Amino acid sequence: MTNLNASHAHRYSFILTGIPGMPEKNPWLVFPLGFLYTLTLLGNGTILAIIKVEPSLHEPMYYFLSILALTDISLSLSTLPSMLSIFWFNVPEIVFDSCVMQMFFIHVFGIVESGVLVSMAFDRIVAIRNPLHYVSILTHGVIGKIGIAIFTRAVCVVFPVPFLTKHLPFCHSNVLSHSYCLHQDMMRLACGSTRINSFYGLIVIIFTLGLDALLILMSYVFILKTVLDIASSGERLKTLSTCLSHMSAVLLFYVPFIGASMIHRFGKHLPPVVHMLMANIYLLLPLC
């Protein structure tokens, strides 16, 4: 039976969703989506170029920023093919294996981005609590090992997901809720038990994004404790200002993610267009 389900899944295809109820207006979304993707690629590419050519930016904080920019570009390129297929070429169909591959890369780079935000929080702790040893602690070798560890963690935790998905039987509707493939969206269409997939997905979220959010929160507790020990109010503000860009990145990543998760779990009665908008905001907003 498993072999039959697997062979059936390989011949299966999904229909990606543009704007529910407004298919005739989908081509017009090429322009705003194209602008967002162009802004993402140019913005992050500019960051990488400036950091590379400017020697004064060859510091740990900017190396982590470079990793974050590369992650944003990779995540953007992971969703670009399906977006163009829907809104430009009006071809919403995607074969099963391509959908699974896109799902894999989207989840991997999402977890990588969360890990980079944790490493940037660690960077701020070291810079504020041990400024004299900042460069000696976060050497090029240490930063490289942190980057490899972040990527390895993401690949390892997401690696079982495609295999779990390929063993799901799909025999009902093949219309996905979003313009790209996600694990939870594909599970919704399965006509068999998804208990293992759901349990594993919950474990991954708790021990990656959930743990990362907790570590970031704890890091800012240490940072605030250190800042409050500074006598001068001007120095306090100056020190906290070095964390503003990181705090903004954290909010842009976690707030849309939490909003999309809450709507996906508790907003099933809401119109499909709400789910589509929240899913795209969750994916596109942090990239900009």
UniProtKB/TrEMBL annotation:
TM segment ranges: 28-51, 63-89, 101-122, 134-160, 199-223, 244-263
Subcellular location: Membrane
Superkingdom to which the source organism belongs: Eukaryota
Main subcellular localisation: membrane
This protein's UniProt keywords: G-protein coupled receptor, Membrane, Olfaction, Receptor, Sensory transduction, Transducer, Transmembrane, Transmembrane helix
PROSITE patterns with a match to the protein in the record: G_PROTEIN_RECEP_F1_2
Transmembrane helix keyword on record: yes
Membrane topology category: Multi-pass membrane protein
Pfam families, per the entry: 7tm_4
G-protein coupled receptors family 1 profile domain segment(s): 43-288
Matching PANTHER family: OLFACTORY RECEPTOR 51H1, OLFACTORY RECEPTOR 56B1-RELATED
Name of the protein: G-protein coupled receptors family 1 profile domain-containing protein
Organism for this UniProt entry: Saguinus oedipus (Cotton-top tamarin)
